[in-house]
Amino acid sequence: MNPIDFLLWVAFPYAAMAVFVVGHIFRYRHDQFGWTSRSSQTYENRLLRWGSPMFHYGILMVLGGHVVGLLVPKEWLEFFGVTEQIYHLGATWLGSVAAALTLAGLAILIYRRRLNSRVLLATTVMDKIMYLLLGATLLFGTTATVLYQVLGAGYDYRGTISPWVRGLLSAQPDPSLMSDVPFFFQLHVLSATLLFMLWPFTRLVHVFSAPLAYFVRPYIVYRSRDQHRGSGSRRPRRGWEKSELPGTGRERQGTRR
């Protein structure tokens, strides 16, 4: 086994996995105040209103395509009637649309940070590194897709990269699968691996803070404490006790007694 292949396609990915998991646990335990996307919407909203949805919807499409292409074996898709031609057309053109949408949204967000001085001041060094790695990963992947899938004869990464990823997850790595992978695909994989390694130390941690409890939390009831404010034409529901201001109502009557 080539030492370079072992370093790039076995040691480096496992190190990134370890840092990804341990880094998130460490930051959650010691930096919950910084566990946020650090929204800058109050500084500028016009460009954010366009760039943020484009980037987020695009990246969700990209991630969904990668999950299917890398983790679902080819035989499983063929069992459900998804032939090689259908998969190639869908992955190429839908993937290209998703990549273009994501890159456009990311470009708007970066331009917004450079244009607005207040947003730029709120940008940390790790934010800049994250944007650089994220942009490089998307650019390498888009370049590989255009060169080999759109303009070229096509490259079946489901026979090399996909088994390599599944081998890593099952603790059976095979670095030889990556030795003959085209250069831009290799750059895409390496930059994505480095991005996952730095993930816990960037604003990307907010991905794991989805407000799922919002859908099951109890309703919040707002009731006025001002007795002079009318309640409108709606009558109070049964079981609700009218709130009283301190020193008014029953409390005032008790004082008079």
Describe the structure using short key phrases:
257 residues; 0% strand; mainly alpha
Query: For the report, how would you describe the main beta sheet?
Result: none
Poorly predicted regions are none
Helix content: 55-70%
Strand content: under 5%
Radius of gyration: 26 Å
H/I helix tally: 9
H/E element order: HHHHHHHHH
Structural class by helix and strand composition: mainly alpha
Average pLDDT confidence is: 85
Find the count of extended strands (DSSP E, 2+ residues).
0
Any idea what the shape is? globular
Distance between the termini: 94 Å
What does this structure look like?
- With 257 residues, the protein is mostly helical.
- The protein has nine helices and no strands.
Ordered list of secondary-structure elements with their pairings:
Layout: H1 3-30, H2 46-71, H3 74-79, H4 84-115, H5 117-121, H6 125-150, H7 161-169, H8 183-198, H9 250-256
Helix pairs in contact: 1-8, 2-4, 4-6, 6-8
What's a concise summary of this model?
The chain is mainly α. It is built from nine helices and no strands.
